Amino acid sequence: MSIFRISSREKTLVRIAPITEKPRVDRHMRVALLRARRNAAFAEELKDQQEFDRAISELVKAVPVSQEIAEWFRNEKLIPQEKRSWKKAIRNPVILSIVTSLAVIAGIAVFILFERMHDFPGSDTARKLLTIASATRATQLESVQTEAGALGDLFFMKYRLEHYDVPAEFADLRTDGARVFDDDEGHRVAQISVPENRMQLFLFPADRDPKKAQVREFSGWKFVEQEGWSGAVQIRDGVCFMAALRGEQRDLAPYLAKAQE
Question: Are 120 and 233 in contact, with CB atoms under 8 Å apart?
């Protein structure tokens, strides 16, 4: 009786043992083969099996293979590879998703760049005030029935706000409410409600250069848009004035045309 015992698992491995002796053969298989060769009962069986397997291998190699079948196995690929055209590649859902995403990102970048090209000192504050205008309710304002141009004196006497004067283009508009509040940067902002076209008028400090502490000036009327609202902004004596209404810039044009008359 051989001293090299072989388990049932190793017997199974021996029966399916490869004919190659390459080092990459699994360790469990190598141990099973070693024990089988040292076991008198299995050594002869293993030898016969491997000789038979080699004979079959040589027979298979000698079988002629057609050119078409040979193409399947070229470069160790069982499936013939067809070069995909760029049209088929574009139709791929993954490629389409990537292209669409890049197009959206590019569109957003262009939109932001276009907006920045039209920015002016105080444009960020003006946009914030447009958001406030869209959310303002009549109960938040103090009832004031007068002409918009008369409120400059009220702002000065009651709140000590200098140069908070409504430009001549909007001075004749009747008001129904007003208030003064601090924005998120602690600046004093005057807000006036005008029934005509549900317009909102704002007066707020102009931007200053942090290094020189000087007002950052700009000329003429500048326009901003936010959440369906449009605003026309002008600066004078260090104070910005903005007329805002729900709509487009062209809706403000009739009021601005008064300055040219």
Answer: yes
> CA 203 → CA 122, 192, 227, distances in Å?
12, 9, 20
pLDDT, tens only, 179-188: 999 998 889 9
Strand order in the sheet with 177-182: 177-182, 188-194, 199-205, 239-246, 229-236, 222-226
User: Rounded to an integer, what distance in angstroms lies between the CA atom of residue 70 and that of residue 65?
Assistant: 6
How far, in Å, CA of 12 to CA of 240, rounded?
A: 91
* Cβ atoms of residues 120 and 222 within 8 Å: yes
Instruction: Enumerate the domain spans of the chain.
Output: 8-65, 120-260
Around 177, how many Cα atoms within 13 Å sit in the side-chain half-sphere? 14
| Mean pLDDT across 60-79 | 67
Among the listed ranges 50-54, 226-230, 246-250, which one has the minimum average pLDDT value? 50-54
Write out the two tokens for 258.
């008064």
Round to whole Å and give the CA distance between 57 and 79.
23
For the chain, state the CA radius of gyration. Answer: 43
> 0.70 cut: is pTM over it?
no
- Quick one: tokens of 43? 């050594």
